[in-house]
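Researcher: I've been going back and forth with a colleague about how ATPase dynein-related AAA domain-containing protein might be arranged in three dimensions. Neither of us has a model we trust, so I'd like an independent prediction. The organism is Acinetobacter nectaris CIP 110549, in case that matters for your notes. Sequence below.
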Amino acid sequence: MSEQEIQNLWDQFLNVWSIENVQKMTLEQYIQVGSKDTFTYWLEHMTRPIADIRGGDASKFGIFHRRDQQDKENGRGRIYDNEYCWFQKFGNTKEEAFKTIKHNILNVINAVTNNDLEEILNIPVSEMFKWKIAFLYQNQRTPQIISIFSKEMLDFLTEDKNLNRVESYQYLLKNKGEQSILSYGCQLVNEYLKANPKQSSLTPSDGDEVLNQSEFVPVIKKNENIMNQALNRILFGAAGTGKTFHTINHALSIIENKTLEALGGEDREELKKRFDHYKDQGQIKFVTFHQSFSYEDFVEGIRAETDDEGNLTYDVQAGVFKEICSDAQIEVTSKNIGANVPTEFSINSAIDNLIEKAKHTEQSFYTKRNAEIKVTSNQSGTLFALTSKDTTIPLSIKHIRDYLKTGQDNIINNRAYEWAIANSLRSVIEYEEISPDLNSRPYVLIIDEINRGNISRIFGELITLIEDSKRQGAQEALSATLPYSKEEFSVPNNVYIIGTMNSSDHSLTGLDIALRRRFTFIEMPPKPELLNGVSVDGVDIQQLLTVMNQRIEFLLDRDHCLGHANFMLLKEQPTLNNLADIFKQKIIPQLQEYFFDDWAKINLVLNGNDMLQSKTIEKSVIFPNADVEELGYFEDKKTWELAPTSFESIESFAKIIRHA
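Model: Here is an independent structure prediction for ATPase dynein-related AAA domain-containing protein. You can compare it with whatever you and your colleague have in mind.
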């Protein structure tokens, strides 16, 4: 479309959805399955040439019309009736919820028409949705918003990740010149795409008009544009900056082929639900490194096991990384040959049905030697086998799933009981033909605290094999013979590694150069802006954290700044008691570690707010028989102690910010 045609479309939108019409808007006019006249359809689809906010599901609208009108149980912050689903935070009925949502939308419109963009930051509407509304209703003669709502793009264009959207727009508009806002927005998008050619589609999945929570299996064709995802990445930053928290978004971004920005606008509970779903299916694995973690835990090692006869055997067992690579390899092989493979849904259904039956009655199965085993389940879903010797053995659901997935007829790792169960369940498994035109599903391994382990010992030969150019299918592909199983092993190109690293903990082993160069590093800095609007008895918590971090960076370095996660509790419960507990239990102990108990510097960070008090040392009392005057360094020696009563006064916290 030409710029004039896009301008005409903008004018048409404002004619159809004037402020007066938004004020009179009904729920059916807001969102309705199959209707192209609704407010949300206009925002997401009709005005797409102006700015694209497609992606994710309809939860970004707060309330959505359900095509699947079967009964659904309320939960995870959502309420369902036979037509709609909405977030409980907006109201207990669909009428209350829509009234709240419409009120929030009108607040966005009022804020932009009154040139109060800062107000929009705090309005509870999903980010992409509310900023497109603000863009469309702004004064076209003096625009303040550019048609770019992706924080990722704005960060790139401003080269400053610490700016909020309002600050980003103000920065970028300085260079607009005489261009129209539409032309300038197009220019900036082209700049971004030129520098990021593999992201030619910023919203790869169309937004659904319905909420479908039953299946989370994104299907991506080989010819579709797939975002350029780093195979190996590490999220690094100071303690409390949300590194582990954000691994969920990064994992979902890889699996669902969505931008982090799009996922950031979705409900956190829904993201966690999808993450847990993929984790249950084995598509995501989570492990935490520590000093006792070894190559045998990560890749493979010999472990003592008891077989179904009670005999002790020593077999090679796969570690967490080899397991996820094996799962990913099954996926790759199936796709390459276009074979008939068991459907994930039928495997999960068969196992779930077995667990439900086993909770109530014993289930009988037969091993290859025709020995009968009785299987039961506890209420948490763990299966147990009762052997002929009246011993109880916990069973591995993962191995049952693997037997069903691979169709393996040989006993692996002495898992004869799991084989017996899988052999019985095969009769109810459904199969589908996998087209070679589909991309293999990605598998994600999350390694929390990656620098807490002995990296070289844990990774071993994988230091070479995880490199992009050494993966299966790459031009420089390599494989290695594993030391225990003597198997030839390589890393599939659909396995992604996400690590987290606390950059402030210098007591830990750093990543060696060989491993460091094979990872993409993504900094997770403190984000005081997430505390915007949080106040405790008049003390601005965002400013409090910002000021303290400025002092820490000056006295020490940026790696030791305080994370915003320490204060997130105050968003829900902004009380003086909670603020005092955060300082006593988190902030001050953390500063003690950072400054090695140099209380004078800690006092500087706190701006001499009287939380710390110096004590006079009576040298003659402590050293009655020594000539302490000869020890000159005692002259300047100070000891410090906390002043407990200072935490009971909001004035102590205000002094951290305020000049004397």
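Researcher: What would you highlight for our discussion?
Model: I'd start with this: Residues 197-226 have pLDDT under 50 and may be disordered. After that, consider the following. Residues 221 and 438 are 5 Å apart (CA to CA).
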